[in-house]
Specification:
two-stranded antiparallel ribbon, binds zinc ion, alpha+beta
Amino acid sequence: MEETKICPFCGKEVLAIAKKCKYCNNWFNIECPYCAEEINPMETECPHCHSKLDSKLKNINNNKNENKINKKEESQNQCQTNHLMLLLK
Ligand SMILES: [Zn+2]
Ligand SMILES: [Zn+2]
């Protein structure tokens, strides 16, 4: 049986050795490019070697394309109702 841990972002169970949550795609730890220690991806500076972290390491969480709402049909129905009202007069 493999060891697991709880994702701090979504609360689901993932493999203990996982570097990235397979449910919410958040990274748990990244490797410092300077000293190779594991660090939190939210850090702006490595706590081990105090190097400033490259901004490209921090772009991994910006993949949120949602909220596509189509209200076109609704307004068309409204229009038709208005026409009927005019015809009834
Ligand atoms: Zn997660
Ligand atoms: Zn470092």
